[in-house]
Design goal:
Elements lengths: L5 H47 L4 H14 L7 E7 L7 E11 L11 E11 L8
Antiparallel strand pairs: 1-2, 2-3
Helix pairs in contact: 1-2
């Protein structure tokens, strides 16, 4: 019996069954990791902006959108901010940023398939801009 060419067939079988799924998992973990870093950086930046002036919610949302885009995440972030006791100058700003990170190479007919990641940050309101 001739076994010539069996090694190449076995190699192709291993490539399809093992290597390609592992490569996809690595790509998906990379995307989700980028999304997690983006929401973390976005939450910290939004908290910093709102700690300087709690009225700048549009600026904070825009900064978060830019940060998410810079990390290569193709999704719209959701920003929620609350400010406890901000008028007295002793309060703190709480910001929560969430985004649905799309998985790579997913067809559009599957819908919005992705992994949700979120982060929150808290920053004290600066006394300089506190309103009396």
């Amino acid at each position: 019996m001739n076994e010539r060419g069996d090694a190449s067939v076995e190699f192709l079988g291993i490539l399809v069954v093992v290597v390609i799924p592992v490569l996809y998992i690595v790509l998906a973990i990379g995307q989700v990791s980028a999304g997690a870093m983006a929401v973390d950086a976005g939450a910290r930046e939004a908290a910093r902006i709102l700690a300087e002036d709690p009225e700048r919610t549009a600026d904070a949302s825009h900064a978060v959108t830019l940060i998410v885009e810079d990390f290569g995440v193709n999704a719209e972030p959701e920003v929620a901010a609350t400010c406890e006791n901000c008028q007295a100058g002793e309060g703190a700003v709480d910001v929560r940023v969430s985004v649905q990170v799309p998985l790579p190479f997913m067809p559009s007919w599957l819908g919005d398939v992705g992994v949700g990641v979120s982060s929150s940050a808290r920053a004290p309101v600066r006394e300089v801009v506190a309103r009396e």
